[in-house]
Amino acid sequence: PAPVPALGLAIDIKDPANLQGYVEAGRLVAGDYWSPANNPDYGASVTIMDASTHARSDAGDLWTDFGTRARKMPLQLSALPAADRTALFGIVRRNGMSGAMLVSLFPESADLELERDHTIFGKLSSVSAMSIPYYENYAMPLEIEEL
Asked: How many whole angstroms separate alpha carbon 145 and alpha carbon 70?
């Protein structure tokens, strides 16, 4: 079906067999999606950013001032055909650094932990250049920081 502009989304959940009496949902994301023809380059990673800091007391104990934790995922898309270049450039143009997006490196993976660890709801850390490494192929690095 064609995308439909909307101001809101309502979800009715009926689960009469639920003995707990409630359903918990973290974040629900709805909207257009894009799946490139070619995967990101090998070496894609996920880094846990931890804003905690350490300090030593006069007695030598290590004290930690706990900070927040989030993840970031750098990706290199080096083999984008023209249609994917157009789609990705449109996403970056619309979202910029302020718009949130859901990025899943292993969608529909049988290994649920792998999919969970490599799925980030976040924003671009910076806006990178789209390059043309060779004829009719385009490349763009992305780095997504978790919200």
From this structure: 7
